[in-house]
Design a protein that fits this description.
Order of helices and strands: HEEEEHHHHHHHHHHH
Shape: globular
Number of domains: 1
Largest sheet: 4 strands, antiparallel
Strand content: 5-15%
Distance between the termini: 24 Å
Helix content: 55-70%
Structural class: alpha+beta
Number of strands: 4
């Protein structure tokens, strides 16, 4: 296996496409309505002090989340603009002779679809979503069970269970919309391409489709670990609370700690995935990916391959000139 094949790459699904992050560039490929694949390429520039922070355990996870959210939003906006242009062009052709009222109704429908798309960005961006999934379950648990009625560990386990139910329900509901279902298919295509690349095979549609859509390094796994790690940290005796507001305050205050430890846990499980007894540590995250990924079509895999191949090409060119 070549040195390139051993490099670790990541990415994210966008509207009708996939973004991959390389060493020197981030590339998004999007399929337009006319079947043309267009690219959006942004060179990666990281300040030296950020690079230093990304080498410090616990801190590197938080820095990585913030960085990927900021850069990922650029590529998501690109894909949404391309999607909006195609939808607008279609609507313009279809409603030339229709009443103004009908045009307004269809435009409103399109706007609602785009709002749903923006909601998915909350999952990928993670920060706002994590705050919601932290505060709401804590408040619900406190309102229903209080904190003096049972052992603190049991109380936090119930809170963790409510978080999981809340998360699964949310993912299931949004996955029923056509736009989000396709986004989850592109998520699966992203995973398949990375797995095929790490497996050292040629990136053809047939080869890529033979790989699983689940991957240990996925952000979905990170969400599960953050719930599990949160139960452990919140149960430590030093983090006692006397009211619902104190409980919520502690959850928000400890969120960076939970995220940092969760990131390190995810790195550990990924490193141990080839060890029979330890690979099971990553199973909860893989199970969640059964909701956040769907089996992609050949056309969606082709877009993912195009994005990844373009990223590799630019990375090699910029690496040689560096």
């Amino acid at each position: 296996m070549s040195q390139d094949t051993r490099n670790i790459y990541g990415g994210q699904a966008v509207i009708e496409g996939v973004m991959f992050a390389g060493k020197h560039v981030n590339v998004t490929a999007v399929r337009r309505k006319n079947d043309e694949i267009v690219f959006y390429e942004v060179p990666r520039t990281t300040k030296p002090w950020i690079q230093k922070l990304k080498k410090i355990p616990l801190l590197r996870g938080i820095v990585g989340i913030l960085e990927s959210s900021a850069k990922g939003s650029q590529h998501l906006n690109f894909s949404m603009e391309a999607y909006a242009e195609d939808e607008y062009a279609d609507d313009k052709d279809k409603v030339k002779e229709e009443p103004v009222e009908k045009k307004k109704e269809e435009k409103s429908g399109w706007s609602l679809s785009m709002i749903v798309g923006v909601a998915v960005a909350g999952i990928i961006s993670f920060i706002v979503g994590k705050l919601i999934f932290t505060v709401v379950p804590a408040a619900v648990t406190e309102l229903i069970f209080g904190h003096d009625k049972m052992n603190i560990v049991v109380n936090n386990l119930i809170e963790g269970l409510i978080k999981i139910v809340f998360l699964l329900s949310y993912l299931y509901i949004i996955s029923l919309t056509p736009l989000i279902k396709r986004l989850f298919q592109y998520h699966g295509a992203e995973h398949k391409v990375i797995s095929a690349y790490e497996g050292g095979v040629d990136l053809t549609v047939k080869n890529v489709q033979s790989f699983t859509r689940l991957h240990y390094r996925c952000g979905s796994s990170f969400i599960v670990f953050s719930v599990i790690v949160g139960v452990v940290i919140y149960s430590l005796p030093i983090f006692h609370w006397d009211s619902m507001w104190e409980r919520i305050y502690l959850r928000v205050l400890l969120l960076p700690v939970v995220l940092g430890v969760s990131y390190e846990t995810l790195r550990f499980t990924n490193a141990m995935r080839d060890m029979p007894l330890l690979r099971s540590l990553g199973y909860p995250g893989l199970w969640l990916q059964k909701l956040t990924t769907k089996e992609p079509t050949d056309e969606q895999v082709a877009v993912s391959i195009a994005s990844f191949s373009r990223m590799l090409e630019i990375d090699r060119q910029m690496g040689k000139s560096a």
